[in-house]
Amino acid sequence: MDVTIYHNPECGTSRNTLEMIRNAGIEPTVIEYVDTPPTRDRLVQMIADAGLTVREAIREKGTPYAELGLDNPELTDEQLLDAMLKDPILINRPFVITPMGTRLSRPSEVVLEILPDTHKGAFTKEDGERVLDEKGQRIV
After folding, report:
1. Residue 85's CB: how many other CB atoms inside 10 A?
2. Is 45 a member of any domain?
3. 134 alpha-carbon distance from chain centroid
4. CB–CB of 91/37 below 8 Å?
5. Is it the case that residue 120 has pLDDT exceeding 90?
6. Is the pLDDT of residue 129 over 90?
């Protein structure tokens, strides 16, 4: 299965998402988007395919969001996209693209919605939260 993750290795949610993909037996294409941001067209497509608004795809925490005044409700989508592409840390993460769909995997287990049921056993997130049992089934 062809899977792409727009990943930030410094983000726990992104690391957990990547490992859940691998737990499904898939080695994805990993794009460290801070160093290699998507094109404007690709970013717009990912946001739309994930069913989000541009504003929902902006990361506030740990970014220059507030100091850039991006909380101003009068800013257009185009202005927000300009900011995200100028400073890619503003792109929320991780976006995952599979043939089954595109998701902003926050929380990380959202990625399970777009992966096949091929998990290789239990999965526990870095914080100790169990997500999959020994049979690879989702713990609810």
Report:
1. 15
2. yes
3. 25
4. yes
5. no
6. yes
Residue 119: predicted pLDDT: 84
- Structural domain includes residue 124: yes
Q: Which amino acid is at 122?
A: A
Q: What is the pLDDT of residue 85?
A: 97
User: Which distant-in-sequence residues (6+ apart) come within 8 Å of 69 by Cβ?
Assistant: 75
pLDDT of residue 115: 95
Mean pLDDT of the chain: 96
Global confidence as pTM: 0.93
Active site residue 34: no
Tokens of 61: 């925490």
Report in angstroms the alpha-carbon separations of 19 from 26, 33, 71.
Answer: 10, 17, 32
Q: Alpha-carbon distance 123 to 48, whole Å?
A: 29
Provide the residue range defining the domain that includes 57. 4-132
Q: For residue 110, tell me if it sits in a domain.
A: yes
Instruction: Determine which one of 3, 5, 11, 84 is catalytic.
Output: 11
CATH code assigned at 11: 3.40.30.10
* Beta carbons of 91 and 84 less than 8 angstroms apart: yes
63 within some domain: yes
As for how many domains the chain has, the answer is 1
